[in-house]
Amino acid sequence: xxxxxxxxxxxxxxxxxxxxxxxxxxxxxxxxxxxxxxxxxxxxxxxxxxxxxxxxxxxxxxxxxxxxxxxxxxxxxxxxxxxxxxxxxxxxxxxxxxxxxxxxxxxxxxxxxxxxxxxxxxxxxxxxxxxxxxxxxxxxxxxxxxxxxxxxxxxxxxxxxxxxxxxxxxxxxxxxxxxxxxxxxxxxxxxxxxxxxxxxxxxxxxxxxxxxxxxxxxxxxxxxxxxxxxxxxxxxxxxxxxxxxxxxxxxxxxxxxxxxxxxxxxxxxxxxxxxxxxxxxxxxxxxxxxxxxxxxxxxxxxxxxxxxxxxxxxxxxxxxxxxxxxxxxxxxxxxxxxxxxxxxxxxxxxxxxxxxxxxxxxxxxxxxxxxxx
Length: 373
Known about the structure:
The protein is mostly helical. The protein has two domains: 1-179, Growth Hormone, Chain: A (Up-down Bundle); 181-368, MFS general substrate transporter like domains (Growth Hormone, Chain: A), CATH 1.20.1250.20. It is built from 16 helices and no strands. The protein has helices at residues 2-15, 17-24, 28-52, 58-78, 82-109, 116-124, 126-145, 147-168, 183-187, 192-211, 213-217, 226-273, 277-292, 294-306, 310-338, 344-361. α1 packs antiparallel against α5 (82-109).
């Protein structure tokens, strides 16, 4: 549920652009920066905050971040000032960076060693659920009764999460000062750099297409099918989470390689047969299957390679993930303005080729057989 709320908080303004623009009396492009500031908040604070709080007990730190979501979403719901809303979104990103750095390691600690990957998969299931169901629901609600109620409901849901977490979530100690690694020390751990590169390149490729899916579909007369396309993507991503949860503890390396190859095949399909609506639907379904499990796969690989320094390694994942989100918007925008949307699939393939090479070569550390981690 924490993952669901975090993703929904991040992406909700994208589905409420017209309503928020009219109410706050700024352009839709400025409302779009609410998502950008959220990503920047996570990107620049996840690593230093996680490093600073390594010695904190885990439950109080997690609860602090979740309470932070209640505050910032409530401020967003009642604010009539764009600068205040922008500041609230930045701090929402800060709290999100803490949550993302914690939850994978938290889930792993709560499960026996042979089920840690599955535990992380269950935790990450909130991501495709938010993308496929939560954001469309929030968009519909915002259009029907106002965007402020959507953020108010988010605050109410977070309060429910707080009550549940207080009652059910166990506490764990932080790291002792004499056993903590520096940020540079964690970065230099065998396998961590490979996982970070694969994460950055894969998510960058994903966000080039995901950010600009509407203009990509427009030339083939599918501009009015964006909702259906995203629903297919979301449902396929949900199926991918189920497969990942079932196999990750035995087949992590295979799943990572298969996800990269499947994404590449989806990109090739969209590049070669992108004028055919049926093939576009098929390519998007394959894309969703390729993407749905990767948050779990990359965070599991990061946690296993980093060992006791898992939370710092997860903060690095958060940083490169948000860097890839921002980079996808920039690179996709440049491609859109210079070459056109027909370049998107081939740009994805250019990124996925070294991604596959690095993942394949990381057979000893990074993405090895689970037994050797």
